[in-house]
Structures are given as structure tokens and as C-alpha cells.
């Protein structure tokens, strides 16, 4: 890597970098520099919006995972066919609940898992994901604090013991149900 590119990347990743410098670096011909700007939590929303239309998928992914990415930009990125961009949008806490609901309709296992793990995911959607045919999605639902008690009660008896154990460790699992489960399976490991 050229030394100038390395310096630009370092500057682009600095959270205290002034917005005009980030805007200038967002136009750099090197995608690594633009990707770093896209992931910087100090990046101005207008710059993020422009970078969300970048030809390079890594740059668009950087925008999708940026914690300050505007909800309307995330909504637009959620329609990208690339799974890694949808995964980034699905886990972004700024993602609107309506967009999360649309993302799970695609039934992509990785996207659904990230939606379930998103701390901003509505409990009703976590409940829906707890019925997934994918064990990794059910496991994600069991591990999140948004998982409703009714879903945790069911997940305690999931055919996969690691999912049941995760549900047993969730603080939202009703104590009476957990006590009954412990009678059958023993103390929580």
C-alpha cells in the first residue's frame, strides 16, 4: 500500500476527523479510503448518503454498518441484492422496524439472524423469528433481551440443547417455567 493511502485511511478512520476532511476523503479514488470514511461514526449524513450509492460494495457495506447512518439511507440499502449489505442494515440499530420486517421476508438466514440480534428489533418480530426453521435464527432470538417470555418458554424445549440452554440463561425467561425446565434437565450449565 502506498504510504499516502495508509495516511488517508488512518485519517478517514479517526472519529475526531473534521467533516470537511471526511467529505474530501470520501471522493478518493481508492475504495479502501472511501470504505473507511463510510464506517466513521463522525461522517456527515450527506456524505453517507452519497457513499451509499458508491459503485464498490465494500463502501456501501461500510455505510450500512455505520451507527449514525440515517434511517432513510438504511431503508434504501435494504433493497440491495447483496447479502452482506442487507446483513449490515439488519444489525444497524438505526434501522426502522418496518425495514427490519421487510428484511426478514427475504428469509436469508444471515439477515434474519442479524435482525434478531439487533437491539432495536421489536419483540413481536423477535417472537416471529423464534419460530424460524433455522437453528441459528432461533438461537439468536433466544439470546436477545427483546425475546418475549412466551417465545422463551417454547425455546426452552427446542430440539437443539444449545438453544434451550441459551433460553434458560435469558433474563426474560419466566422463573416458574425455568424451574420446571430445571426439574427435567437439571441446573443451568
Overall description:
This protein has about 190 residues and is mostly helical. It has a domain at about 1-70. It is built from 14 helices and no strands. The protein has helices at about 5-10, 20-25, 30-40, 45-50, 55-65, 70-75, 85-90, 95-105, 110-115, 125-130, 135-145, 150-155, 160-170, 175-185.
Helix residue percentage: 55-70%
Taken as a percent bin, the fraction of beta residues is under 5%
Largest sheet: none
Shape: elongated
Described by its quaternary structure, the protein is: single chain
Low-pLDDT windows of residues: none
- Roughly how many Å apart are the termini? 48 Å
The count of strands amounts to 0
Gyration radius, rounded? 20 Å
- Compressed to H and E, one letter per element, the order equals HHHHHHHHHHHHHH
Count of runs of 4 or more consecutive helical residues: 14
What structural category do the secondary elements indicate? mainly alpha
Mean pLDDT: 93
Would you spell out the secondary-structure blueprint of this structure?
Layout: H1 3-12, H2 19-25, H3 31-39, H4 45-51, H5 57-65, H6 71-77, H7 83-91, H8 97-105, H9 109-117, H10 123-129, H11 135-143, H12 149-155, H13 161-169, H14 175-185
